[in-house]
């Protein structure tokens, strides 16, 4: 059995790994796994295998939901960020939901920061393996059974009957604001707090279980802001000057998304070459909108930017694209 440090080292060795071509979900990691598909969890499995941690990480996975459920079934799952450590496997739901069934991304924790955020290493983020700083959209984390792994925190990060402390006082204060519950703010999650919480869950059409988990917390945040539905997370576009370097990274992708939006697309400018961006590019190029960046799409792109139309998206094609994007002529 390997260690958390070995797992993190294996992930660091993958930094900068790309798809070839961009948007194809193809690289040496997907070749190792056995098929070309969303490869964030394949990256975790690959690093686990390279560091002797595959069994510790619950095995070989490509589907994030099944991977998180495997940690939960093994008693190695924790909702939220409380108690998270370097080497933990952290799972995200970009819609802001808090259930395992909604998970759509995963990474490995490299460091825990003083502001409560985490630094992660993730595959398939902007079609690359990159280091990210995260705090929002975390569903929870799994703690692999590394050699010498620390035990999980005793709490699963959710508030329920019997919970005590500052978090309960905050909940009681918020229920009083939103529901006019008249609770005594004493930090004791007793029957009155449970009843008020269930009333809140009923009003906002949540599962009425009396447990203050991620979905209820997201709805509370929206309700405090006067909303009637959870506030979806806003993508943060990458910042910086687009260099003509032949590397298709987040800055190039974000510039491409802005250009496509100027031609009628309605893309979130997040620097990620996701299916909506791929289809918008295909629509602009006048080819089949199947979301797969294959030879036909690449040749159409190459003709558009003045690159050699060989159907292979290499650095030469990206260089020509970057030049067009910087000139505002794409």
From TrEMBL:
- The source's superkingdom equals Bacteria
Q: Which residues form the Peptidase C51 domain?
A: 32-124
Q: Which residues form the Peptidoglycan binding-like domain?
A: 164-220, 255-301
- Which InterPro entries does this entry report, sorted A to Z? CHAP_dom (IPR007921), Papain-like_cys_pep_sf (IPR038765), Peptidoglycan-bd-like (IPR002477), PGBD-like_sf (IPR036365), PGBDSf (IPR036366)
Q: Which Pfam families match?
A: CHAP, PG_binding_1
Q: Quote the protein name from its UniProt record.
A: CHAP domain-containing protein
